[in-house]
Specification:
By secondary structure, the protein is of the alpha/beta class. The protein has eight helices and 30 strands. Bound molecules: alpha-D-galactopyranuronic acid. The site of alpha-D-galactopyranuronic acid has 10 residues, from loops.
Length: about 575
């Protein structure tokens, strides 16, 4: 299942994931026993034996284990005509072959990609996917890091049967003026045939139906724009009432015959900044958040939706209203759930803690730009996403780094002017980039990495930002606070790494930050403990980042009740 609802009624879609696929190790590091001898590309009888469930992370399969390298997946399907294969996520570099012919190449585990195949003969076809999770110069964003870069087909795979033309993209932008909600909708329609296409696009939303003509030359594309439609009877989307509306775009051909459709769920809400605050539907938001990795001890990053929903239940129980999707675009089903549950989201491109030399890798800029383009185009309609983030803790203190930040902010604004943007900085009084984003954000760890009292530390940073950084007057957000605790390590004198110490540190941090009138709120690092790259073993006990308020299996630590009490004591808005 690609989404949490049916996104097509006309287009025929079939899930190819949700089943066992043949699997072979091709090249790279040492896998576990079962694979040591088999490295042939051919699907001989013997090589067909091992099968893995798709989606999954191969690290979680005991027969594959801690393998960093290239592996191949294979299955067959029956279909014909114009086909689209959608891959929601493959870690981290994918090559797709249909009947032995290369048809897609994609880098980055955290964004979707597709292969559109025209006039495929009716019959049984072979689909092979090579996935490679090796670290090298070629991979500027997946690097050894404070989280795991898993291998494999980690998100769903869908087969779509397309007609002669199809709707490639549908974007909805809400706005509010003169007491009335408005929406602009933009659709991209593409002709797959060698004959011209004449028809119409019929748009239905919140009781209103609009039609626009579509005229496509052979193989051509058209943007259909419906601007500033007024809706006088809609309920706005908010954390208190996350009202969603179904938007349907129907592409009809000659005589009104349905050719294709695209269905999404949207919400009427605005996000702006003003008066040093983040404004949701005009009201100043207080952010009470968690940073969350897509990480689970059983599933790695391939988290099934029921486990995603459990995470959101904990988030709600804790009184939080915000998730920062660290440090990459998330599985779209998680965003669907946030839309439904009224949880606000910061989604960010994929880049954590890259030093200047890593940003100078010639692949860095094109790869980061690609993630931004894919993230925004794929997740544009989610009302829950209220902030686009980029470049967590990268080299924002260098001239070269700053030039990359500027370009990425310009790109974001050119793709989506309806949401504010930000970057989580750890450069304290040396950051050069606060002039670019709409929101100034800092990751701070008082009482963990240093002992400055949180309230003074945060106020001092705020005052510095007001001086000459370009960040003056912008909302000021703390995007990480936290402290490590090993689950079950209890000690009455509360040393670091004990659950008592974590509860103490979080209490001081949250009170210091939420009590500061200049901050718009904070996010706790992190929701649950998670694995880190093996290369980080000497920095992280158990090769895990243990700053979760829950342990990896979602067992609450002592700090859970502390956070819950503090988050529940303050509302969603500054009044
Ligand atoms: C950072 C970073 C996180 C994590 C955290 C920590 O600021 O953004 O990914 O590494 O620190 O645990 O130190």
């Amino acid at each position: 299942m690609e989404r949490m609802f049916a996104s097509h009624r006309v287009r025929r879609c079939r899930e190819l994931s949700g089943s066992l696929w043949q699997f072979q190790i091709l090249e790279g590091g040492t896998p576990c026993s079962a694979f040591q001898e088999k490295r042939e590309r051919e699907w001989t009888k013997e090589n067909r034996e091992h099968r893995v469930f798709v989606p999954s992370c191969w690290e979680k399969d005991p027969l594959v284990g801690r393998f960093r390298g290239k592996a191949a997946y294979r299955r067959t399907f029956r279909a014909g005509g114009n086909l689209r294969l959608v891959f929601c996520g493959v870690g981290h570099t994918a090559d797709v072959l249909v009947d032995g012919r290369a048809c897609a190449h994609h880098y980055n585990a955290y964004t979707a990609f597709d292969a559109v195949l025209r006039d495929v003969p009716e019959g049984t076809h072979t689909l092979e996917v090579d996935a490679d999770n090796r670290f090298s110069e070629a991979s500027a964003l997946h690097v050894p890091n404070d989280y795991m870069s898993y291998g494999g087909i980690t998100r769903p795979v869908i087969l779509e049967e397309l007609g002669s033309a199809w709707i490639r993209e549908l974007h909805f932008t809400p706005s509010y003026s003169d007491g009335v909600w408005h929406a602009s909708v933009e659709a991209r329609v593409q002709n797959l045939s060698d004959a011209p296409f004449a028809g119409k696009l019929v748009l239905s939303l919140a009781g209103r139906t609009e039609e626009r003509p579509v005229r496509l030359p052979a193989g051509g594309e058209q943007k259909v724009v419906l601007e500033d439609m007024a809706f006088d009877r809609v309920t706005p989307w908010s954390p208190e009432e996350p009202k969603l509306y179904e938007i349907t775009a129907l592409l009809a051909g000659d005589g009104g015959k349905p050719v294709d459709d695209q269905i999404d769920r949207v919400g009427f809400r605005t996000v702006e900044t003003g008066g040093g605050r983040i404004l949701l539907n005009g009201r100043p938001l207080r952010i009470k958040g968690f940073c969350r990795h897509e990480e689970h001890p059983m599933f790695g990053s391939a988290i099934p939706p029921e486990a995603m929903q459990m995470d959101l239940s904990f988030v709600k129980d804790l009184g939080a209203n915000f998730i920062r999707c660290t440090h990459y675009p998330n599985d779209e089903r998680f965003l669907d759930l946030c839309d439904e549950e009224g949880i606000l989201v910061w989604e960010e491109n994929h880049a954590r803690g890259l030093a200047l030399e890593q940003m100078q890798n010639p692949n860095f800029e094109p790869q980061a730009e690609q993630v931004i383009r894919e993230m925004i185009s794929q997740h544009y309609n989610h009302p829950s996403i209220v902030i686009w983030g980029i470049l967590n803790e990268c080299a924002s203190d260098s001239e070269y780094g700053a030039s990359c930040y500027r370009k990425q902010y310009d790109l974001i604004r050119s793709l989506d002017a309806s949401r504010p943007s930000s970057s989580a900085s750890c450069k304290f009084r040396t950051d050069l980039c606060f002039g670019y984003p709409d929101i100034v954000s800092y990751n701070v760890y008082p009482f963990w990495y240093h002992d400055a009292p949180p309230e003074h530390y945060v106020e001092d940073l705020y005052q510095w930002v007001q001086e000459e950084t370009g960040g003056k007057g912008k909302p000021f957000l703390i995007t990480e606070v936290g402290a490590g605790a090993m689950y079950g390590y209890r000690s009455s004198d509360g040393p670091r790494w004990s659950e008592e110490y974590q509860a103490f540190a979080l209490e001081q941090q949250l009170k210091g930050i939420l009590g500061n009138p200049h901050t718009s709120g904070c996010c706790i690092w992190q929701f649950a403990d998670g694995n880190v790259s093996e290369e980080w073993w000497d920095k992280r006990p158990g090769t895990m980042n243990n700053k979760g308020v829950l342990d990896p299996y979602r067992r609450p630590k002592r700090s859970y009740e502390t956070v819950k009490q503090i988050y529940h004591s303050c509302g969603n808005y500054f009044e």
